Amino acid sequence: MDLHNIGRKIKEARLGNKKTQQQIADECGISKSMLSKIENGQTSSAVATLSKISEALEVPLAWVLDDHPETDIVMLPKAERQFTVGNESMGYSYELLANRSKFSSIEPTIVHVTPKDDNLRHEPYTHSQEEFIYILDGSIYLLYDGERHFMEAGDSAYFKGTKPHLFVPVENKEAKVLTIFIS
């Protein structure tokens, strides 16, 4: 999915909720200018920011990110899955594993934790959903609520997204993390 489609969906949901850009921006702790750029497809943003926006708009993150038609059953062959959404220069990209209704309460994704200069990494994120992660490949440090946890392929964790957290690749090598957001 491209940034224009993400922006279109955010704007559609915002207008449907009869909220202004300023109201959503204030609720999410971002500037009105940043929200405008996201809505216009002019910038990418962190998953946590998109999650906060989707929460403020009362729609799941997966609905914002996915442009496939909604159905009762979701079959998504690997060849049809959009490999990456996001910005590797920010230290992540991700792929949606299922197109779900905007009213679904579960959002499965694979987060690609990509190498980047640690000095450029941002502060840990928070969001309202609970989160389950399973390390598919590589290893990460899960920074969670001020503690650092080493995790490698096969390890899993379940935690509250309301606590500050961040995935950091070990030795600056890419890792793949199955992430399920649960509202």
Automatic annotation (TrEMBL):
Keywords annotated in UniProt: DNA-binding
Top-level taxon of origin: Bacteria
The keyword DNA damage appears for this protein: no
Coiled-coil region(s): none
Domain HTH cro/C1-type: 10-64
SUPFAM superfamilies noted in UniProt: lambda repressor-like DNA-binding domains, RmlC-like cupins
PANTHER family membership: BLL2473 PROTEIN (PTHR46797:SF19), HTH-TYPE TRANSCRIPTIONAL REGULATOR (PTHR46797)
Name of the protein: Helix-turn-helix transcriptional regulator
InterPro entries xrefs: Cro/C1-type_HTH, Cupin_2, Lambda_DNA-bd_dom_sf, RmlC-like_jellyroll, RmlC_Cupin_sf, TransReg_Diox_bact_type
Zinc as UniProt keyword: no
Originating organism: Virgibacillus halodenitrificans
